[in-house]
């Protein structure tokens, strides 16, 4: 199946920028490379959320460009048909960890550099985070007040 008669050729400079450009033709060989952890953004050129997260994606790619085994890539899902799976929403972020077995992990968390980095550093899982209200519980009152109180009593 060809979309609008376009079959995207692999751009000659697909790997010259920090964010690698994937098309249908090089997608599988890059994403399922057993020696690389590949984090791919499937986007649509007209999608606002994709545009909003583009700077974070670029920053992520720059941060990891010296890591031989981490590839940050993007694929225009409107122009490339993928046999491997369908992309239903944009942006869809998928992580293809190194190793055999063509594993795919869908990334569903916050789209910012810090969270992306944690996800990558942790091998494609986010460190388990407690619900937001949890961390406050052990410290019902600021310690400063209690020390001041005891000083006054002395």
Automatic annotation (TrEMBL):
CDD domains per UniProt: PDI_a_PDI_a'_C
Positions of region (Disordered): 121-154
Polar residues bias: start-end ranges: 145-154
Catalytic reactions on record: Catalyzes the rearrangement of -S-S- bonds in proteins
EC class name: isomerase
Keyword Repeat applies: yes
Chain ranges of the Thioredoxin domain: 1-125
EC number(s) stated in the UniProt entry for this protein: 5.3.4.1
Domain of life: Eukaryota
Protein name: protein disulfide-isomerase
Pfam family, one: Thioredoxin
Molecular function per GO: protein disulfide isomerase activity
Family under the similarity heading: Belongs to the protein disulfide isomerase family.
Keywords: Disulfide bond, Endoplasmic reticulum, Isomerase, Redox-active center, Repeat, Signal
Compositional bias (Pro residues): 134-143
Alphabetical list of SUPFAM superfamilies matching this protein: Thioredoxin-like
